[in-house]
Amino acid sequence: MHYSPLGRSGLQVSRASLGAMNFGTSGHVASCDEPEARRIIDAFLAAGNNVIDTADRYTGGESEGIVGRAVRDRRDSVVIATKAFLPQGDGPNHRGLSRAHLTRALEASLRRLDTDYIDIYYCHQWDYSGTPIEETMATLDGFVRSGKVRYLGCSNFTAAQLVEAQWAAARAGGTPFVALQPQYSLISRVIEAEIVPTAQRHGLGLMTWSPLGSGVLTGRYKENVTPEPESRMGRLLASPAPQANRWARELLTERNLRIAEEAGKVAAELGTTTAAVALAWVRDRPGVSSVIVGPRTLEQLEQNLAGLDLDLPKELAARLDEVSQPENGPVNGLPASAA
Predict the structure, then answer these.
(1) Which one of 59, 210, 226, 299 is separated from 293 by 20 to 30 angstroms, measured CA to CA?
(2) What predicted TM-score, i.e. pTM, was given to this entire model?
(3) Of these residues, 3, 58, 117, 128, which one is catalytic?
(4) Fold of 3-181
């Protein structure tokens, strides 16, 4: 099993992280009941992986509860990551990155996870409500000093926001972020221009999410072919919610499907799957410490782990680099090939 240090820290993380967003039966995105989630967690840890990623908002808190029960007897060998920001109530102080909300959210996550500490505690997104970043970073530093949190991270921050947060921590002599969770895949490379170089300069390891482009990079969808009604994109396109329909159309673009097609050709040459190729490509990018996969079934987990073990030759990685360049031209922050 291959482990990497998480950013500028001594925490060793496996190349695969288990995303627990689908664990539970509450909410619209839930699709994995507790018995199946337990099988997935058991198989993931048995394979030598050690990071499980959840959030207080996932399935109304049910995800955290499932993870906590599943790892109770092996807690010290598991790296648990969770997040706070999203609403946990109707009041104005039940959301965001204020000291009031973060303190309440941390205590609630500790209860649901049935643990004394959280290994990586993330700010789920930037707080635009006016909370000073100095207040957020001081509060998080207090969590670390209390022993309730061991490492800090952020999700979906811009490059400028990363710098502001790290500077705020440094000015106060506090604890900086060592992890960043960005969206990253062959069809979503926008972070390469500014966010990846900034994260590397400031000591943050990337724990990437949506490496399969919401399923587009599985090879299931083809240009000029209507998605099957039972598929994820089929359900979204049929949804009465305009936002869901629009999101699906934005994913199923000619460019994205062309990238998926090329990943499929590479997969055929290697005798593997399109998804495996897409996962291996993300795994090998600069600054990536771990790739978050979010299986709903044990079979999906096994396929994902096989992809993260795939040896992707340099020349094939270069082909994928070329076909997946952003539409506004090559990125400025990274070399053409990360191999």
Answers:
(1) 226
(2) 0.93
(3) 58
(4) TIM Barrel (3.20.20)
